[in-house]
Amino acid sequence: MSGENTLKEVIGRLDKALSSLEDAVDFRLERDRQFADADAEVQRMNADRARLAQEIDRSEARAQRLEEVNREVSRRLVTAMETIRAVLDR
Question: Which pTM does this prediction carry?
Fold first, then answer.
C-alpha cells in the first residue's frame, strides 16, 4: 500500500503543480491582454493629441488672421472718421 500512497501523493502534487501552472498562464494571458488594451489606449490618445495639436495650429493661424483683419478694419475706420471730421470742419 505504501507504493500506492506514494503514487497518489505524487499524482496529487502533479495535479497541484498543473493547477498552479494553469493559474500562472491564465494570469499571464490576462496581463498581456491588459497590456494590449493599455497600448491601444495610448495609441488612441497619441492620435487624439496629434489631431488636437493640428486643430490648435489651425485655430492659432485663424486667430492671427482675424487679428490682422481687425487691425486693418480699425485703421480704415480711423481714416474714415478723420475724413468725416475733415469734411465737417470745412
Answer: 0.55
